[in-house]
Amino acid sequence: MSNTDSSRKKPGSSLPPEAWAPFLRLARVATRPIDRFIRIEAASGIVLVAAAAIALWLANSRWAAGYQALWHTPLGVRLGDFHLERSLEWVINDGLMVIFFFVVGMEIRREIANGELSSWRRAAIPAGAALGGMLAPAAIYLCIAGGAETRSGWGVPMATDIAFAVGILTLLGDRVPASLRVQLLALAVIDDLGAILVIALFYSSGMVPSGLLVALAGLAGIFVMQRLGVRSKLAYVAPGIITWAGVYASGVHPTIAGVLIGFATPVRAWFGPERFVSDVRSKLEQLAAQTPSEVSPHGLAEVLRQVEFARREALSPADSLVHSLHPWVAFGIMPVFALANAGVSLAGAPLEGPTWSVAVGVALGLLLGKPLGVLLAIGLMIKLRIGTLPTGLTLRHLLVLGLVAGVGFTMALFVAQLAFGQPSLLDAAKLGVLCASGLAGVVALVTGRTLPAAPDASTDAQS
């Protein structure tokens, strides 16, 4: 028997018993760059840019017809006389994006419970900045494209893309104080909440009471299960689907169901770090006190089950789900959404009249309205002594904050889908979002490079 084969059979070997060392080493070498890339905070933004670039290229290539037809591919299920069929685009925008909004809802709930929004004093500045950063872009848009045909797009330039914004600050490294990242994260969370309210109140069709009752029944089921102490996350899938179906049937956009379920997800851990450490230590000490011959597979399985239970309950359900779902959302759902929605044909009808006003209104709303609204709101709140800025932040820091807030992308494209049914106006809005977001990101990077290095900057900010 070779040395490699014998090493594979040794207890405690670093290789699984069935693994072949050369193949395993090759797999680790191949996947190591991918693992490193995923751990970079700006990685999700890079993937989004790549997806948007591919969408633009396909929409303006010889495969444009196939690209457009792909998203209208019908998907459905048939059970007896029951038949449900929707397009691939619907599955992405009304189905997969529910998971994105579910994560957003949990992040907002966490910030309100334990984060920067847990007290008015801490939330005052980012709340004011977010409000100003929503009102100013909407006002600029309405001034430019306030006609009857185009005014529905006022909500498009209100949104900030947190993945891009955090990614840009990460690329600036130690020139950005940690306090500025905290302000951006709080601003983006409030901005997301504002966008959710706008979608629910202004971009949903007429309310159907029966649908709302079904949604309430689903939410009631979630709360009842929580009171009964049901801890399995999979058990909540059924009432979650009922809530989604009710919201969809009610005329409210179905992604709001994700937000509601996210808000309903508990943010308090059962065990927490201290009880987790004590329970696991106790179980491992009991196991270590036995000789290998005394440890049966059944006994070991029971100990591992208890350790797994402690591990699962060390985090709150919201923290655990965000940790599990974030990679899928950042590197799966959002890029697929960008691929499906960022494709704009540049060879179509010329920008003139309504389409021109939509594109310019969206672009200026993001590029000028965001920084202007953020700066004016912060200045007003400081003057009124409603809030105070963290030590070390200057006007140039706040300008960078306003500029990165002008990167709309995912949420802005999503609102554009809801705001415009006419393809030419939708393409114009998309073009405005893409141009403004790209330019705002570049200007933010250039402006940020003029900032002095911050001694307290942390390169490990939350993504």
Question: Which labels suit this protein?
Answer:
disordered C terminus; Na+/H+ antiporter like fold; 2 strands; 18 helices; globular; mainly alpha; two-stranded antiparallel sheet; 69% helix; 463 residues
Polypeptide structure, described:
With 463 residues, this protein is an all-alpha fold. It folds into 2 domains: 40-204 and 253-269 and 315-449, Na+/H+ antiporter like domain (Na+/H+ antiporter like fold, Up-down Bundle); 272-311, no CATH class. It has 18 helices and 2 strands. It has helices spanning 3-8, 21-39, 43-59, 64-71, 88-114, 120-145, 162-171, 178-202, 209-227, 237-250, 255-264, 272-288, 297-314, 317-341, 354-383, 395-405, 409-419, 423-449, and strands at residues 74-79, 82-87. It has a two-stranded antiparallel ribbon. Helix 8 packs parallel to helix 16 (395-405). The protein is globular and about 80 Å long. The two termini are 49 Å apart.
How many β-strand stretches? 2
The number of domains is: 2
Kindly report the average pLDDT value: 83
CATH domain fold name of the largest domain: Na+/H+ antiporter like fold
